[in-house]
Design the sequence.
């Protein structure tokens, strides 16, 4: 069964990250399986309009300005016309939104449902319940997911988190993990410096990634092991913390801050390492440890979120998110390296190749699309009744908003009927 799918998210290339690479690689695999895939995201600098990527992947870079952290200002009304035009022009059947923090994903799904299209949502992250931002995000997610056909999470821990915070029935949620392209991440021990032990840490330098823990661990490990060096890639507001530690402890020759890395530089950096360190405080699924394991590195990580589901015990050493536990786990990893008792790089690579294959992930996602396409269409009235159950205040408020959206869509149908919109030809590469 061939599907016409529209991926929607604020996060896409040229921006780099887990969600961005997930959308791109999944789209490429779906195209190889015979489906048509279109991506909608916002503009990035001068990248505005329609662009074609590998294998004819068509990307709409909408002329919308970002508000914060590459996320657009939520408007809904302003994006109605352009989403309607694209969905009709591309003959979209299924809209697939990515990331609970993406405004475009929420808007795209809500507009698609009002137009009678099927909708799928993938949640890539965990979220709390206590602070104001978490409460607002969870309520918005609850409203969005109350009208979708199916939800995908990248780990079982992520599924539990999504079911709790969005109040979505568990049977509406599937677990399909991330994967990595093992042809791009291959081990090469000849690239390692035999005279030292290199610990690699690659992440955005933000609080959620546990950079404060990393900053506390570095001087302790450097004092205990004179041959240990740190390679730290990534950028963010917490970089200043690492710079201060390096300056205070005079570790300029042993701690290298590489800054933001291109995707091609990630593999080159991993090949130089013996141990990969992840200090995240929360993580639904950490693709970085999968890429590191594919390159043959020992992995040391905090035991948070969905990380225990990603690698087997003989490939990862997990620690509670505190300094002493992480230092102890690094002690074990360094000792294992010195004794030569760790799993061989080729064995690590083969395990990742067998377990996290993108074609398998795309096939499982295709099964979700098959199931969604068979579901009966929901009337606008039924959708509004679902939204009404999302709270005594938020429910009626959003019913009013969506009613106005529905009226506007009817107005656009009168002003610019769908039969006047040119259908875009399919790419034949």
Sequence:
């Amino acid at each position: 069964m061939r599907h016409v799918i529209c991926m929607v998210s604020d996060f896409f290339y040229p921006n780099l990250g887990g969600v961005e690479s997930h959308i791109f690689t999944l789209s490429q695999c779906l195209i190889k399986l015979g489906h048509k895939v279109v991506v909608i995201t916002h503009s990035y600098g001068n990248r505005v309009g329609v662009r074609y990527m590998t294998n004819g992947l068509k990307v709409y870079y909408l002329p919308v300005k970002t508000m914060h952290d590459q996320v657009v200002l939520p408007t809904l009304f302003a994006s109605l016309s352009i989403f309607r035009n694209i969905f009709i022009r591309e003959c979209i059947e299924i809209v697939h939104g990515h990331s609970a923090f993406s405004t475009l994903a929420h808007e795209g799904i809500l507009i698609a449902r009002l137009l009678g299209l099927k909708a799928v949502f993938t949640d890539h992250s965990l979220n709390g319940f206590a602070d104001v931002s978490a409460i607002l995000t969870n309520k918005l997610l609850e409203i969005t997911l109350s009208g979708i056909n199916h939800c995908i999470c990248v780990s079982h821990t992520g599924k539990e988190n999504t079911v709790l915070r969005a109040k979505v029935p568990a049977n509406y949620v599937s677990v399909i993990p991330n994967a990595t392209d093992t042809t791009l991440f291959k081990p090469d021990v000849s690239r390692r410096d035999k005279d030292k032990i290199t610990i690699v840490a690659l992440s955005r330098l933000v609080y959620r990634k546990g950079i404060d823990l990393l900053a506390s661990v570095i001087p302790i490990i450097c004092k205990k092991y004179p041959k240990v060096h740190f390679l730290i890639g990534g950028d963010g507001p917490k970089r200043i913390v690492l710079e201060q530690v390096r300056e205070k402890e005079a570790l300029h020759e042993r701690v290298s801050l590489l800054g933001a890395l291109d995707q091609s530089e990630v593999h080159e950096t991993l090949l130089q390492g013996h141990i990969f360190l992840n200090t995240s405080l929360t993580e639904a699924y950490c693709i970085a440890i999968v890429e590191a394991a594919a390159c043959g590195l020992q992995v040391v990580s905090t035991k948070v979120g969905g990380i225990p589901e990603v690698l087997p015990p003989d490939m990862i050493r997990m620690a509670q998110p505190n300094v002493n536990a992480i230092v102890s786990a690094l002690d074990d990893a360094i000792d294992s390296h010195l004794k030569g008792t760790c799993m061989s790089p080729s064995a690590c690579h083969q395990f990742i190749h067998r377990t996290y294959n993108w074609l398998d992930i795309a096939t499982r996602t295709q099964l979700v699309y098959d199931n969604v396409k068979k579901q009966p269409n929901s009337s606008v009235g039924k959708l509004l009744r679902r939204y009404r159950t999302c709270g005594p205040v938020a429910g009626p408020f959003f019913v009013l908003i969506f009613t106005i959206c529905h009226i506007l869509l009817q107005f656009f149908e009168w002003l610019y009927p769908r039969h006047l919109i040119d259908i875009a030809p399919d790419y034949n590469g």
